Amino acid sequence: MAILNKIRQKTVVLILVIALALFAFILSSLFDNKDALFSKSPDVVATINGQDISREEFSNLVEFQQRQMGPNATTSQVMNSVFETKVREIVMNDQIDKLGMTVESEQMRDLIKTNYATDPTFVNEAGIFDESKVKLFIDNLKNSSNEAYQNWINTEQALATNALQANYFNMVKAGTTATLAEGQLEHKLEGDKVDIKYVQVPYTSIADSTIKVSTSEIKSYISENPKLYQAEASRSFQYVFFKEVASLEDEQTIQTELKTLLNDSDVYNEATKATDKKVGFLKATDIEAFVNSNSDDFKYVDKYQYKTSLPTAIADTIFKLEAGQVYGPYKEGNYYKMTKVLDYKKLADSIESSHIIVPFVGTTRAGADVTRTKEEAKAIVDSIFPLVKNSTSKFAEVANEINTDGTKGKDGSIGWTRLSTYNPAAFDPDFANFLFFNEKGSIDVVLTNFGYHIIRVDDKKNEDTAVKIATIARKVVPSSKTEDKIFTDASNFELAIANGNFAEAAKAANYDVRPMTANELDESIPGLGNQRQIVRWSFEDATNIGDYKRFDNVPGGIVIAQLTAKQDKGVMSVEDASVTALPAVRKEKKAKLIMDRVNATSLDAFAAAENQTVKSASAINMKNPTIAGAGKEPLVVGTAFGLKEGATSKIVKGNTGIFMVQVTKKTPATKIDNYLPFAKQVSTQKLSSVQSRLYNALKESSEIEDFRAKTVQ
Predict the structure, then answer these.
(1) Claim: this prediction has a pTM higher than 0.70
(2) What is the reported pLDDT for 648?
(3) Distance between CA atoms of 698 and 625, rounded to whole angstroms?
(4) Backbone angles phi, psi at 362, to 5 degrees
(5) SS (H, E, C) 438-452
């Protein structure tokens, strides 16, 4: 009882202790998960000048942009395009909003008219843009589909955004000009000329191997020039790719399976409990069904081909076979194939033809105005045929009157069709057969998927022997046994690197180790294609240097990767920066070495001391500070312009070496009465770059937080 009383007396203390304990627990969990304290919500892809771009909005924009850019654009390309567009929109809108710029309804009407002036949807019978058609179009969108209407709203917003940005840049351009003083300076920079004599001691005259550069010197150079060595975050890793490829045994099995298709075979029928005779490739009569049921990816093509249309490797062999004979198995690309010769014919490659067409209800491309039945169409064609059969003029007259396709007004002319290039899948077979297998001058009624035709063969040329073939193809893929071996090899390698060195384990097993450095938003890995999953893993906070991971869902095999280096955003590491920093430091040390040993005060003495020759260059100007025989040397040229005629400079450190210069002649620019043309020249130069420079300046001064790598798969 006494204990209970003491507890009651200390209630407040207990509550405080419990509260502090809970608070400490919450704080510890927050610090364990730093994202909860310091990062944006995972639903925020980026923040630009305080404005968040949500994951949902960004995903919708990426999906829309992917449709616009097509299937060949990678996810990374689409995502970067959307991000840059959104950054530009927000950065520019901030400036536009500050100025109070808007697009009013009248300007929007003008924008729509300008962008859709020739769109058939919005022009009247006279071919003139009609605003009433735009209104009707928008009303129909409102009533038909919310998505379609929203797409139109988005289109209007994009037009308005582009117009406002154009207005903004035009306002800035209007205030961008050049004064007469700038024109005079431009004239002077181009027109002032100097002739010089000079001695150059190239840095290359000192061997790189004689100049020792320490790591501390490289570090110092990087710290003195940090802007030159800024880098995006990157990760370096190495990986082994266990590629799933068919073994020699797999390929031999595929060839054997193909050979068994040649001859007839006995097959047990489970349904009838009897043995059926299965016809082989050699005796098959329904060749299309046989090929399509036994071939991988390649279907039967009912087409005659010339020798030049066949693969070069097999063309001669195929044309030596008789009809009914088979060549193969042979390998072509990633397939083993067997080809059977079905027939040979002498056929013209080019056929010129004309037609009259009478479509009926249900035929391909029959418009809503076609109401006649098949029987009615046949009756019309039968009545026309006697009139046009032997009369070119009547044929043309009727074709121009009743045809509804592109041959109307062209006397029914289809033009030339080539046997070697036409696509059987896109060409009506009955129409094609009439063209290819009938002589010049033939004319008859032919029923196709488009209706009843009266087809006339007008001309034929380029006749040659063509062959019809049937090919069975089997794709070369690894067997289950081979896949199991690849899986086992990857598993054994994984065990080996768990207890040893990645590179050594790979070398012991004779595996190829491939190095890779990726930026945070990269997705493509050479030899593997789009492997965003590997890049994401390498950038995860929990992934440390030396960690490895197995990726089983890589198309075509298994990858085991190991992280080897991390580069955070900011100044490069000494190792990465050394590629350019080492030569720069070495050049500085060479310059100092040469300058410290020079005590000559004349060109001849300097040339003699350094075993160089005195060279000449004439008509040098400040606009293009290039010295003949030495290259672009702005500091050396500037020094020359600062000397009086006949004067000699001290030692000058240039881009390519150490120089001493003597001015032999100075020619001032010719004085002119009006510098306006040069002022206009300067103005044009400014205007050509103002838009990009202005936007880049606005973007650089903006606050942009990019979380795409954390939020986008």
Answers:
(1) no
(2) 96
(3) 32
(4) 100, -10
(5) CCCCCEEEEEECCEE
